[in-house]
Every structure is written in structure tokens, then in C-alpha cells.
Design a protein that fits this description.
Layout lengths: L1 H13 L22 H10 L1 E3 L10 H4 L30 E3 L7 E2 L11 E3 L7 E2 L11 E3 L20 E3 L20 E3 L20 E3 L20 E3 L20 E3 L19 E3 L20 E3 L20 E3 L20 E3 L10 H5 L2 H38 L1
Parallel strand pairs: 1-2, 2-4, 3-5, 4-6, 6-7, 7-8, 8-9, 9-10, 10-11, 11-12, 12-13, 13-14, 14-15
Length: 405
Amino acid sequence: VSLHASRMSRLQQHRRPVAAASGSGADAADSGTGVSAAMLKQARASGQLNLSGRQLGSVPDTVWRINIDTPADAPKHVTIGGGSEGWWEQTDLVKLILASNKLTCIPDEVAMLPALQVLDFHDNAVTSVSPNVGELQELRSLNAGHNRITQLPNPLCTLAGLVSLKVDHNMLAALPEEIGYLTGLEELDISFNKLQRLPYSIGSCTRLRKLVLNNNDLVTLPSSLGQLQQLSELLLEHNQCKNLPSETQQLSQLVRVDLRHNNISDLPMLAAAKGLKEMLLGNNYLTSLGDCSAFPPQLHILDVRDNKISEVPASITRLAQLQRLDLTNNDISSLPPALGDLVHLKSLVLDGNPMRAIRRDIIARGTVEILKHLRSRQAEEPAQSGRSSSSSTVSSSSSSAAAAA
């Protein structure tokens, strides 16, 4: 009883009369806002409100005040301990979906929903987010993608419990230096923005597992990336990077790395990432695969298409688990017969290479026939070596006989 009374007292302090819905029934919209009384009632019971795709130009005030206003259908006289659940026992809103509307800002009133754990307003026209978002200390997931945001409010970085932050497809030119205070962050998507650099403090987000940086203007990356020991996905497609910091050699948990469409000329050394499965390096300036020691032997996919590679080393067999090798549009004229030993290789793509050592009709028949051809060449080499050795022996014997005569 005392708990109920306490909640009623707190709500009464902010209580404001709510006009009854016009029209017939509980489904009528409140004052033409597009949010029905029935939706608000259900949200009070479940703690979740989905207002996506409702053409909203702003969030109705009744939504911001849902935790504190007295419902229109609340009884005027309340008996404590009456047996049935009272309106004051409502669940605070923990999930608010505002996606695919016409919102232009997230106002100060967002602070009136302190229990929010999920806030999703992606696919709007939002240009600014109130600093009051920093008061949502229970927030775990924030999706602000596909908007027109030019700057993130610094108080956002005080949300130490935030696990997922998506601000992709915006107009951000920089991240706050305080981004490192988001120590609980596991997923950060800042793709399709205008970033030229990352703050060094990002290395303090040590729980990061997925970092999406695609389609920015990044030229260099901070050495502090090497501190992200839990990172499993590093996605950097369509930037201007020439290499990865040497400290990234320490990222042992990497599973997928995407560096396509950059200016990379030297292979990143990621052999320490024993679980690395995908290495995507297409559309760069690589001229060599070296001895393949840059990659772990468990690699499944290696994409080096559209580079300037002229040779595939025999040491490619180090990658014994390789399933797909894309060599499209390079300068490769032959393949090592040892490549035929990669028994897990299901896709070998050679289009756009000046291949002279393998007939075009064999290449046209696909991976299985190419590998079969390479294995046949392996079988021929010992025979050719034997004939060469025999010829040398005969020649040597003839020379010795001539000398004795």
C-alpha cells in the first residue's frame, strides 16, 4: 500500500489533466496527434510504444508525459488495496520506436522518459538531438541512423550502459572526444558519414565487438584500435586508408575484416587473429600476397579482386581451410600447381587476368576443373623431373665414355 501511495504521490506532483479522446471508442486519436488512447493504454501496460511509419512531424506531448500524466480513463476515486491493478501501477516506458516518420529533432522532453532502454528514431529528418538524452541512464540501444544529424551531443557519451549505437547515414564530420566513456558499447555503426578521423579515445571502448566505418573519408586510424581486444568485425569499406595501424596485429578475436575500396598497398598483418574467416581486400593497390603469412590458416574467404597482383605464391597452401579465393582483375598469368591441394576451395574466380598457363576452356568450366587441372600438373612434374634426371645421367655417361676413349 505504501508503495502504491508513494507512486501516486510522485505522479500527482506532475499530474496534468488529459482530455478524453474525441470520436467514438478508445481507438480514437488524441486531439488529432495520430496516437490513440488505446495505444497509450497498451504502452502503459507493456512498457513499449511503436509509432513507426505514422507521418509524425513531432512526437505528441502525451508520449513524453506518458509516465506522469493521469490517464483519461482513470477512475476519479481510487481505493488502495481494492484487489484490481490501479493505473498508478503502470510500467514505465522502456522501448520507444519512432522510425520512419518526419521528425526533425529529438527535444528536451526526452528526459521525461528516464526508464527508456531502447530508443529508435532511424529514417527521419532529425538534424539535432537534445543534450538531455544524456539523462537516459538506462538506455541500452540507440538507433539514430538515416537522419541529418551533424553533431552528437556530448552528454550522450555519459551513457556507460549503452550497448548499441547506430548513427549511420548522417552528416557527422567528427565524433565527440568523450566517445571513450561509452565503456559498455559492443556495437558502433557510424558508416555513411563524413568522418576524416576517429578520436584516440575510441580505444577505451574495450567491449566493442562490431565497428562499422564504411563510406567515410578516413585516411588514417588511431593506434588505440589495438586496445579493442574483443573486436570481431572491422568494416572499413570505401574510405581512403593506406594501411591499418601496426597495433591491430594484437586483435586476436577478429572474424571479419572488410577493407575493400581503400588505398591499401601493403597487406595488413593479422595472423594473430586465429579465428579470422573473411578477409576482404578488393579494389586496393596490392601488388603481392607475400608468402601468405599475413593471414591465419583458418581463413575461409580471401577477396583480393581489382588489385595489381601478378603472382599467386605456392605458399597459398598455408590457407588450408580456404573456401573462396577471388582474384578477379589482377595481372596473374599462371597459378601454382600446389593450389590444387586446397581441398575445401569451392570458388576460385579468375576473370580479368591475362591467364596464359591455363586454357580458357578449362577456366570457363569453373573451379572444380581448374583444380583438377592443377593437380594433374602436379602429377606431371615428378615425371618430367625424372626424365630430365635420366637425360642428364645418359649425357654424363656418354661424356665419360668419350673421355675414356
